[in-house]
Amino acid sequence: MKTKLGLFVLMAAFFAVVCISCGKESSEKNTSPVNTEKVKSGPKSILILSSSPRRGGNSEILCNEFKKGAEEANHTVEMININDHDIQFFENKYYERSDNPEDADDAIRIIHKMAAADVIVLSSPVYFYSMTGQMKTLIDRVFKYEKDLKSKEFYYIITATDNNEEALEGTIQGFRGFIHCLYDSREIGIVRGFGARDSGSILKKPTAVQEAYEFGKNV
């Protein structure tokens, strides 16, 4: 009896933390981040968010393959490297939403682009078994804009030096935690580019390159 009670308390605490992390009630948020059923058919608007500070690096190469496939399938694609933009860390003032252009840095403009897209690609190299700080900062800034990102299809493109696919899991779980806090959005596919250290070495991993292209082609 004590064991069951302890388990119940632990589970209650877990869901309380999840709700606090998402900033809304658990009944409102997406309860199934891994859902490969697509929201929309036909031509789509796609936004690719690359967060690698290394231009022409492995994750960016895969982003371009996704873009190539999607454009060949007549989808509309915009690709942004978030390192080109002024994205401030989340701070106290952002607990209250503001769409005043005078208050907005580039994070708000990118979030508006995310809201307008049907499909969003989140791309990051793995740094210390997690996503880049640039990507995490942008994700943090989505707080108070969760409902704007309703019913989106998400793909992840992740690369790592490590030859072990498990090295990608921290980044995948970080992305899934983000999607979990949105409304009726879902994860459709993941491109796993592990074992790629030097810039361009992902080209020696034809499976990842082809997968990125095919995901774009069939989005």
Task: Give your account of this protein's structure.
This protein has a five-stranded parallel β-sheet with strand order 2-1-3-4-5, with helices on both faces. Helix 2 packs parallel to helix 6. Helix 4 links the parallel strand 3 and strand 4. It is globular, with a radius of gyration of 18 Å. It has two domains: 30 residues; 186 residues, Flavodoxin domain (Rossmann fold). By secondary structure, the protein is α/β, with parallel strands linked by helices.
Short description:
The protein is an alpha/beta fold and 219 residues long. The chain is 36% helix and 16% strand.
Which key phrases capture this entry?
6 helices, 2 domains, 219 residues, disordered N terminus, single chain, Rossmann fold, 5-stranded parallel sheet, 5 strands, alpha/beta
**In total, how many beta strands?**
5
Structural class: alpha/beta
Radius of gyration: 18 Å
Record the strand order, biggest sheet: 2-1-3-4-5
The CATH superfamily of the largest domain bears the name: Flavodoxin domain
Q: Give helix and strand order, one letter per element, not per position.
A: HEHEHEHEHEH
Q: What is the name of the CATH architecture of the largest domain?
A: 3-Layer(aba) Sandwich
Total domain count: 2
Task: Provide mean pLDDT, rounded.
Answer: 87
Flag low-confidence runs: 1-20
First-last Cα distance:
50 Å
Write the SSE topology:
Elements: H1 2-22, E1 45-50, H2 58-72, E2 76-81, H3 106-116, E3 119-125, H4 133-140, E4 153-160, H5 169-180, E5 186-194, H6 206-217
Parallel strand pairs: 1-2, 1-3, 3-4, 4-5
